[in-house]
Amino acid sequence: MTAVRPAPPPAAALPPGPAPRRVRPPRWLDLRLLLGVLLVLGSVLLGARVVGAADATVPVWAASGDLAAGTELDADDLVAVDVRLDDTAEAYLSTATRPEGRTLARAVRTGELIPGSALDEPADLVQVALPVQAGFVPPGLRRGGLVDVYAVADPAVGATRTTGGTVTAVVERAPVQALSGRTDGVLSTPTTTVQVVVSVPRDEAAAVLAAIGGRPLVVVVHDSVESGSEEAGSAPAAGSSGRASTGSSRTAPSAGPTD
C-alpha cells in the first residue's frame, strides 16, 4: 500500500525590496568645496598683504659716527639701514644715491638718518693741512670731529717778545677732514708730526696760516659736533690772541678725548 504525504502549504510571499538607485559619478564642481577653496585663498592673500605692509621698509643712508658741519663725506662715513618712513622717505638719502664727496651743511649724529637738506651747499670751504706734534693731539681726535687749533710759544727757541707766553687761536670749530702720521706703540713719540686736515672758509685761509707764525700747534677737541651759531671752521677775529694765564678771558673747550 502506498503512503501519501500531504503537500506542504504554499510559502508566504516576500515583501518587495527597495528599488535600486543608480550610482551617479562624482561632480568636481561641488559648492562646499568651492567655498572652502575661496576661504583659504582669501586668508592667504590677506595675510600676505598684512605682512607686506608691516615690512614696507626702504634702504637709506645713516651716519656711522658723529660728523661736524663742513665734513666731506666718504664711504666710511655712511652705513645703509632699512627703515619704515612712509610718506617721508623722499626727505632722506636713498642708498641708490652716492653722496660721497658731498659736504655736510649741518652736523649729524651717530646713527642719524642723513636728510637731503644736510647736503645743501655750505659756504665755500678749502682744506688746510696743519702739522701738529703727536704730544699735542688728543687721543679722541678723529675724522668728522670738531676742533679748535691754537699756536703756542716754541720751547725750543725760548720766549721772545713776539711769542713769549702767547697763545693764539688759529682756527675755531673746524671740522676734521683727515688725519695722517699718527702711530701707536713703540714707534709713537711726542715729537712725531701728525697732519691734521681741517676745513676753513676760502677767504680766511691766509689769515689761518698767518696766525700760525711758525709756532707749534695744539689741538683741542670739542665734546660735540654741533658748531653753534658761528660758522664752522672760522678764523678767530683780530686781536683774539692773548697771553696764557689763569686770568685769561678766553674759555676753551675740553681738550680731553671724546667718547
Summarize this structure as a short list of keywords or feature phrases.
259 residues; alpha+beta; Type Iii Antifreeze Protein Isoform Hplc 12; 2 helices; 8 strands; 12% helix; disordered C terminus; SAF domain-containing protein; transmembrane; membrane; transmembrane helix; SAF
The count of β-strands is 8
- Structural class of the secondary elements? alpha+beta
The helix-strand sequence is: HEEEEEEHEE
Overall form: rod-shaped
Oligomeric form: single chain
Helix content: 10-25%
Q: How much of the residues is beta strand, in percent? A: 15-25%
Uncertain residue segments: 157-164, 241-259
N-end to C-end Cα span: 140 Å
* Helical stretch tally: 2
Region (Disordered): 1-20, 225-259
Biased composition (Low complexity): 230-252
Keywords: Membrane, Transmembrane, Transmembrane helix
Organism: Blastococcus aurantiacus
Overview of the molecule:
This is SAF domain-containing protein. Keywords: Membrane, Transmembrane, Transmembrane helix. InterPro entries: SAF. It comes from Blastococcus aurantiacus. With 259 residues, the chain is of the alpha+beta class. Among the domains are: 58-119, Alpha-Beta Complex (Type Iii Antifreeze Protein Isoform Hplc 12), CATH 3.90.1210; 125-243, no CATH class. 12% of the residues lie in helices and 22% in strands. It contains two helices and eight strands, in the order H-E-E-E-E-E-E-H-E-E. The protein has helices at 31-54, 205-212, and strands spanning 58-63, 78-83, 125-133, 146-151, 166-180, 193-201, 217-221, 242-243.
